[in-house]
Specification:
By secondary structure, the protein is an alpha/beta fold. It has a single domain, classed as Endonuclease, Chain A, CATH 3.30.870.10. It is 40% helix and 21% strand. The protein has a nine-stranded mixed β-sheet, sandwiched between helices. Strand 1, helix 2 and strand 2 form a beta-alpha-beta unit. Helix 2 runs parallel beside helix 3 and helix 3 packs parallel to helix 4. The longest helix is centred in the C-terminal third of the chain and has 16 residues. It starts with a helix and ends with a strand.
Amino acid sequence: MNRIINVSLLVLVMMGISCCPSVFGASNNQCADVYSTAVRPNQLEVYFPSLGQDPAPVMVTLIDNTKDKIDMAVYQLTDPDIIAALDKAEGRGVQVRIILDRNQLQGKYNTAAIAILRADGISIRINSHPGQMNLKMTIFDSKIITTGSWDYTLQASETDDNNFVICSESQFIKICSDEFNRMWGSGQFIDLGS
């Protein structure tokens, strides 16, 4: 499986990587405007928050444009704008499933975020295995995926060195969707509070 993923990533790199326009002097708002519609097929977009390219508005736009389903596996989820967008998505009938790392459930920001999401009926699971759930990926309508090192927190956008990648390559999305579904259905990830 790792070989398949490595080959898929190599293919993506060979197809060409596009950086957010702010690399070339555009503002953050212009970066968010790029994603008011879906990423073009077989395209890869890369953001670096340390260059002033905040992924949070782009993530919110992707959530806002989702019609049917959001599958999210993320180590930390405390950004209030992303939480509000997920809350609104669930309210308009989008199925939202979230996998979080159990070690990140402490702390007031994580606790508040989870309380908001659970109050609206969003399904949240945590890992019961001894390792970390260190993914940072979200799949939108099985058409677009985000990944990278960026956690969905204000600190990750403002002070940490991270990357945030948006991809629309169908085979890569399928591989990641299969892994998300495996994790969701495994006994190593349990419903929060069960």
